[in-house]
Specification:
Layout (H helix, E strand, L loop, with lengths): L31 H10 L2 H5 L18 H19 L3 H10 L8 H11 L8 H12 L13 H9 L9 H10 L9 H25 L4 H4 L3 H13 L5 H31 L4 H5 L10 H19 L5 H20 L14 H13 L3 H11 L10
Helix pairs in contact: 1-4, 3-4, 3-9, 3-12, 4-7, 4-9, 5-15, 6-8, 9-12, 9-14, 11-12, 15-16, 15-17
């Protein structure tokens, strides 16, 4: 069952782009949200995600997720949910593909280090940097900076995790220019994109953690949500090899989460009497989400993954070295801004320099950050295997 048609974002009623553009021409008959998605896919920032950490730095083998493959998997889940609910698939896909563009090298470890290095100049957060990339730093067009995405796409990226009460400088700067209504809830497309992200990394990080031999299967099976699915797989295929049981586990858990999300979102929309997109924005609470029981289990699974995967002892030296690399690079460029490439000399006051350093370091891939550290500071010691 789909939701009321007027609840979906419509490109025909978009609030438009900062810089007016014709919607026709030699690039084909696409609507505003389709153009947004395609601009994201063709961006330099999107290509860089291929060499940015998801969980593992310098992973042992080619089969672990990176930011790029994670974003594609999030888009698949988000697009499927949007279709089932009758939401705008193109806007949902655009939000899913772009949600991690602002991550610096080495994932959250790198983000923490860059935020700390710039704490006296406003800090750093990857979500604000995503907006900065899309509105300023990507420059494929002659007429303007940024990708000139539609208001709905930028609003959804700014608030996909909900209203933002105290935005950091990068997001606040974009909000002043575009009026993103940070205090209101975003579209259902944005809410679905955020939940698709949760579904993807909850399950795919299990897959990668087990493959790496870091996540203990026995402890994982103590999680009620996982145990329930594993027992069902054992009943169906008792003799299935372990690696195929893990694949079945990941697939089934994704299906359960998506199905629960569909049912609960329909229930919330009906309960709220929401009929239009503006009803969603003014609801005062998220209308997309998991049911109470699954939400509790999902939070428990996240706590388990933080304790047993993201903060696992084998990964701590890797995290510390990644943070050292980012900290040293930021410090080196702040101390001597002339080390920055010429294109990154924009303004000569201390605040402008800090912004330039943040933009440049955040744009680095993991391998490039290692190379620059080796050139400017010294050797980097990251393991080739875990």
């Amino acid at each position: 069952m789909t939701l009321p048609p007027a609840i979906a974002a419509q490109p025909s009623t978009s609030r438009g782009r900062l810089h007016a553009e014709p919607d026709s021409g030699p690039r084909g008959p696409r609507d505003a949200f389709q153009r947004d998605r395609d601009r994201i896919v063709h961006s330099v920032a999107f290509r860089r995600l291929r060499h940015k950490t998801q969980v593992f730095v310098a992973p042992d083998g080619d089969h672990y997720r990176v930011r790029l493959t994670h974003s594609i998997e999030v888009a698949q889940i988000g697009r499927t949910i949007a279709r089932a609910l009758g939401l705008n698939e193109d806007l949902t896909e655009a939000l899913c593909l772009a949600h991690d563009l602002g991550h610096p090298p080495f994932g959250h470890a790198g983000e923490d280090a860059l935020d700390d290095a710039l704490r006296t100049k406003g800090g750093f957060d990857h979500n604000g940097h995503t907006l900065r990339l899309l509105t300023r730093l990507e420059t494929p067009y002659a007429e303007f900076d940024g990708l000139n995405l539609s208001w709905e796409t930028l609003e959804g990226l700014a608030k996909h995790n909900g209203p933002v009460a105290q935005p950091k400088w990068a997001l606040a700067e974009v909000d002043r220019e575009l009026g993103l209504e940070l205090g209101a809830w975003p579209s259902l497309e944005a809410q679905v994109a955020a939940l698709a992200d949760d579904i993807a990394y909850d399950n795919h990080d299990i897959d990668d953690g087990l493959r790496a031999g870091i996540l203990p299967l026995g402890a994982l099976l103590e999680q009620p949500f996982v145990a329930r699915h594993w027992e069902a797989i054992e009943r169906r295929w008792p003799d299935l090899p372990l690696d195929r049981k893990v694949k079945a586990l990941v697939r089934d858990q994704i299906g359960t989460m998506a199905g629960d999300l569909l049912a609960e979102t329909r229930r919330r929309v009906a309960e709220a009497g929401a009929e239009t997109l503006e009803d969603v924005r003014s609801a005062g609470r998220p209308l997309a989400g998991f049911s109470g029981g699954l939400a509790d289990e999902e939070r428990g699974l996240k706590r388990f993954l933080h304790a047993n995967l993201y903060n696992a002892p084998p990964l701590q030296p890797v995290r510390a070295e990644a943070q050292r690399v980012v900290t040293n690079l930021a410090d080196a460029y702040l101390a001597n801004p002339r080390l920055l490439p010429d294109a990154w000399h924009r303004g000569d006051d201390d605040l402008s320099t800090a912004r330039n350093v943040a933009d440049y370091v955040a744009g680095m891939t993991d391998p490039f950050a290692i190379k620059r550290h080796e050139a400017l500071v010294g050797p980097v010691s990251l393991p080739e295997k875990f």
